[in-house]
Amino acid sequence: DTEWGVPVRDERPLFEMLVLESFQSGLSWITILRRREGFRRAFAGFDPDILARFGPAEVEQLLADPGIIRHRGKIEATIANARAVLALRENGPGLAAFLWAAVDGQPLTNH
Length: 111
What we know:
Layout: H1 11-24, H2 29-34, H3 36-42, H4 48-51, H5 56-63, H6 72-91, H7 95-101
Protein name: DNA-3-methyladenine glycosylase I
InterPro entries: Adenine_glyco, DNA-3mA_glycosylase, DNA_glycosylase
Organism: Tistrella mobilis
């Protein structure tokens, strides 16, 4: 396994995980993973700087994109979360430090 349980500290892959988790809600993981490349294309490679500038026209384009899950609430939440990532970067520790602070910067190992 090269994905699950592997510590990630870079902002963009962490944001990607956040977005995919959001879209997975109510669906199977395989449904999301099969559309992962579609999500990457549609959501500008999960670049928060680009996504934060998305507006109503881009939301409508995403709602017509068969390569992703077309759920208005989840799409709008992704854009809002991108804006929150920028705010974290400007006013605080940034996304990675914010998330890792919950576990004192160390991966948890459950036995």
